[in-house]
Structure formats: C-alpha cells, structure tokens
Amino acid sequence: MNVSAIVIHEFGTPVEVVRVENIEVPPLDAEGAWVRVLASPINPADINVLEGKYPNRPELPGTPGMEGVGVVEKVGAEVKTLRVGDHVMLPHGLGCWREAAVIAEAEKLHVVPREVAVEQAAMLRVNPATALRMLRDFTTLAEGDFVIQNAANSAVGRLVIQIAKANGWRTISLVRRPELIEELRALGGDVVLLDNDEVKDQIKAATGGVPVKLALNCVGGDSALRLANALAPGGTLVTFGAMSRQPVRIPNGLLIFKDLRCRGFWITEWYRHASHAEESAMFAELFALAKRGLLHTPVERVYPLRDAVAAVKHAMQSQRGGKILFGAPEIAAQFSPQT
C-alpha cells in the first residue's frame, strides 16, 4: 500500500529538496501495527538533516522527521498491549513526515495518555527528553539546587526551566536580549540575566553563595566559559549544542583547581543505548508533567504534508511565536490562521 510522505533525494537548500511523494508501506504482520501519523514537528535538527549537516541522516531517497505521534488504526493478531485508537509515540528513526507507517515491533510503542494534547505529545521525544536527561543524568540535584544555562530562550532552555520548576530546582538563565528577561521569569525562571562579562558578580549575588552544580551549554565560546566560571568545585558542564560555532575553551586552572567535569550530550545517542523500560520511565515522567500543565511548548502553525515547502520555509524564520509542525488534516485545522 502507498501513503503520502515527504521525501528527499539529495541534501541541500531545505525548501528545494523537500518533495511530497507516494511511498510504499510494507504489509501488516502479526506483531505489527498500522499507525496513522497525527503530528510531527520541524526541529532545527531536521533542517540540518535536509542540509546534510546532521550526523544522523536518512539514506537517500529518504523521509525526514525525528519525532511525532500517531494513532493506531490496525494491530496484528499477536499484539496484546495496543488497541485501535491508542495514541502512540512514533519510534526514533522512523522518518515521521509521512501519512502513515507500519511499525514492526508494535509492543515497543509507548502509549500516550489522552489527557496529553496531540501537538504536545508530538514534541516530547527530542527537546523535553533532552532537557530531562541532562537534569537527571549528570549529577544529583536536591530541592533548591541551582542549574545554570545559556541560550535559555531556546526550546530546550524553556523546557529546562519548566522541568526544574516542577522538581523544586532553581534556574539561572542567561540570554542575549533584555526583552527576554521578563518573559522567562514569567515562565518560571528564578534568575534571568544577560549573558555578558558582568554576569559573574550578578550570579554570585543571586545565588547567595549556594553552589551551582550543573551547567547546560548550547552556545560554546565565551558563553560556555562564563558557565564554567559559575560552577562550584566538582561541578559539571554539559554541552549539547554549538550555536556560536565557537569551541568550548576551559582554562587549565578550572580543571585543576575546581575539578570541573566537561561532558557532552546527544539525545540520539541516549536512545541508541536506552532499554525499553528506561524509555518508558522517561516518557511516564514527561506525560505526567504534560498532563498537569507543567510542560508546554507553544505552537504557531500546523501544516498538512502537501504544504511541505511552505512549512519548512516558515520553520526557518527566526522570529516565530512557536513551533511549526506537520499534521493530519484534523490537527492542521486546529492551528490554521483562521482559528
């Protein structure tokens, strides 16, 4: 059977390489499930995939899309843990910008509670998972502990603020533009400061001497060094992005006399090694936060697959009020400009 999908035959300028085509879907077997895709976001990493700049790329021709959510419409005879109508997280590496897919190992799918909105569920696998894993996996944070981050207005940065707030951890968020300070405070940021050379003393004053155990860096260069200087002895700097395209430079003295740890994080690598039980536990935590309204990513527009070029062009605009997604007709209609 054929379904519509966005297919790329080469890497290059994103709006020039995306095409909507029919692709063949394998038949449903006893252990599989037919899943209709409800929504899938366009993340910055997806744009990098289209450009051929991302480490994890589909074979060509291939279908992009790192995450999404779908609804189960058929199940194989041996599938016991899923029911028709269940909402499920699409598996990592599927290529989610498509109309539907047959999932071979259906019982490994994670069922999404109906209380979680479709568009929010579609965006849980990458950015919220990245924020949660970095907050949990590199040090043990107690209630009241501080976490510092740069580019705090990014998608991951905003989620770090929300997840930390829900767990009683305090955030120091560095941004480049003054108009973002009140916006991030309203989101729940405890301390929001401008990322400049004066910030060192401001951080000390804001924390009152409480040690900062964890720093999250997605910028690099001088900004990363400011994070490292703010860390307490034995603290950990986790790098997960390189927005400035400048390397992380840590002076020898910070490593020797403060015994700082410098680590990297990539959610794709985490999924590569995580067990099904570990994935389930993480999604259960994210679902719980989303159900309580404590985890939310704004959405600006949802496009049908047929509008692939317009959607990608919109996603590449720097000034937006939220994420851009592909969605099934009933989801796209909820976010059309007329609604």
UniProtKB/TrEMBL annotation:
Instruction: Report the catalytic activity.
Output: a 2,3-saturated acyl-[ACP] + NADP(+) = a (2E)-enoyl-[ACP] + NADPH + H(+)
- A Pfam family cross-referenced in the UniProt record is ADH_N
Superkingdom to which the source organism belongs: Bacteria
GO BP, sorted A to Z: fatty acid biosynthetic process
Keyword list (alphabetical) reads: Fatty acid biosynthesis, Fatty acid metabolism, Lipid biosynthesis, Lipid metabolism, NADP, Oxidoreductase, Transit peptide
What GO terms are given for molecular function? enoyl-[acyl-carrier-protein] reductase (NADPH) activity
SUPFAM superfamilies from the xrefs?
Answer: GroES-like, NAD(P)-binding Rossmann-fold domains
What's the Enzyme Commission number for this chain? 1.3.1.104
CDD domains according to UniProt: ETR
The record's section on SMART domains has: PKS_ER (SM00829)
Which residue intervals define the domain Enoyl reductase (ER) in the entry?
12-326
Q: Which family does it belong to?
A: Belongs to the zinc-containing alcohol dehydrogenase family. Quinone oxidoreductase subfamily.
PANTHER family, alphabetized: ENOYL-[ACYL-CARRIER-PROTEIN] REDUCTASE, MITOCHONDRIAL (PTHR43981)
Q: What is this protein called?
A: enoyl-[acyl-carrier-protein] reductase
Q: Which organism is it from?
A: Chthoniobacter flavus Ellin428
**Record lineage:** Bacteria, Pseudomonadati, Verrucomicrobiota, Spartobacteria, Chthoniobacterales
